[in-house]
Every structure is written in C-alpha cells, then in structure tokens.
C-alpha cells in the first residue's frame, strides 16, 4: 500500500495536531500499551525509585500517568501514588487495575498544565513517557510552575524527553516503521527547522484497518527545557542519557533529568524605623506573629 508523503496524508477525523491527549485511542493506544514489557516497567520503576530517593510510603505524583504503568509499579512497592491525565480511557484502565491492590493509586482527570495546588504536597514527582515535547514552551512553563506548587521543598522531580535537540537531530529518521504485535506503525517525520517543530504523522495498520494521527513536538535543547524548570525553582541534580544510568551526552536516545525543588528564599523586609530609632513591633495576634 502506498502511504504517500507527509503532505498528502489527511488528519484523522476529529483530530487536531495540538491535542496529544486524543492521540492515544484505538490502535495507537494498543501500540502504547504493548511498547513496554514487564521487565521494561520494573527497570524504569527502579530508576525512578533510586533517582527520586523515595522514602518508604512517600507521596508521588505521576503526570501524565497514561494507563498507569509506572504508577502501579511504584504503588506495588508501597508508595502513595497519584496519577494525573486527561485521557479518560487511560484513567479508567488505571482505576480498574488499581482495584484490590494493597496500595491503591488515585487517578485524577486533570490537565498537566493546570495542576490544582490542593492535590499536593508530594514528596516527589515524575513526568515520563516522552510527554514534555508535546507541550509548547508556555505549556512547559505552566507545568513547571504547577509542579512547584504541589512538590514539597526538597522534593525531587524526574523528567524524560526523547526529543530534545541533542537526542532528536542526530538520530532523526524521515520515515521509520515498527511492528508491534500484529500492528504496523509507520511515522512520517517533517522537521520544521525555522520554527523548531517536528510534525509527525502516524499510520497504524492491522489487516485492513488503518488509522492515522498527527502530533507536533517542540524541539529545544536540554538546556532550554531545564531552564524553564529552573525558573520555577527546580535545580538540576543529575542528567542521564538512558535508563542504564549513563551520563547524558550528544546523540543519546533520551534525556532523564533529576531535579530538586528549591524555591527561592524570601528576604525578610526590614521594618521602617519609628521616632526614636526603635522598630515598630507588631502586636500579639497581628500580622507579625509566628503561625
């Protein structure tokens, strides 16, 4: 079957290029579920557990959590996990899978760029699944600010991206394909260098069934990404190029960054002097009282 060039491929019905939450339906969702086996999941949970320095019973936020692959693995290890996503199908799967487990996972239908402050505080947070590149720069900044609101001071954050410039550009293939079970997935990649965007059209085939989706990723350097989180109060502790723990470098397949939440300390404002040179003291019960 001739799949044509990227410009000739139509959008899927009802799909907009800027809605990655709707991407994972139908065959695309099946491919995502089958992409990682149990060994992959446990190895990635090991990495998260060690990288985040999780204490027993720690509260962990997984955003976006998808169907809960990592969230469930961490919950099985005794951590109190909250998963956040906008995909209703994935959240329903996570809720069903968490039933009956000794350490249930809380599943919340929340936009990752608008995290409500009352869901925290969390001892640690993670953003895996290569989700970050599909947020525009202002969306990434909003996510960083939201994570700062719900992550405890000193809590760690684990970020994952396979589309930072150092990873994407030396490894970019124009038309890769992959067989996942009985589903064939072909990707038409078009890199827009002027605007720093990667437009990818996915074609999924199973027998006579064919589905197409489009995603746009924003391409930025690792430094650009990490600076957005630094603005929100996250300091880089370590960065790796693979789940095997190698240090991050050019042409590595991914960026895995561990950051620590260290919000800036406010400098106490000096009280104005009063007559006689003595500082005015707040009355007990007033605004100056320790709470």
Write the layout of secondary structure elements.
Blueprint: H1 26-34, H2 38-51, E1 59-62, H3 69-76, E2 80-85, H4 88-98, E3 106-109, E4 122-127, H5 137-150, E5 151-161, H6 165-168, E6 177-180, E7 183-192, E8 197-206, E9 209-218, H7 222-231, E10 234-240, E11 255-261
Parallel strand pairs: 1-2, 1-4, 2-3, 4-5
Antiparallel strand pairs: 5-11, 6-7, 7-8, 8-9, 10-11
Helix pairs in contact: 2-3, 5-7
CATH topology assignment of the domain at 36-162 and 221-261:
Rossmann fold
Structural class: alpha/beta
Order of helices and strands: HHEHEHEEHEHEEEEHEE
Radius of gyration: 22 Å
- The percentage helix is 10-25%
Overall description:
By secondary structure, this protein is α/β, with parallel strands linked by helices. It has a domain at 36-162 and 221-261: Rossmann fold, CATH 3.40.50.150. It contains seven helices and eleven strands. It has a seven-stranded mixed β-sheet, with helices on both faces. The model is unreliable at 1-18 and 276-291 (pLDDT under 50).
TL;DR of this structure?
With about 290 residues, the chain is of the alpha/beta class. It has helices at about 25-35, 40-50, 70-75, 90-100, 135-150, 165-170, 220-230; strands at about 60, 80-85, 105-110, 120-125, 150-160, 175-180, 185-190, 195-205, 210-220, 235-240, 255-260. The protein has a domain at about 35-160 and about 220-260: Rossmann fold.
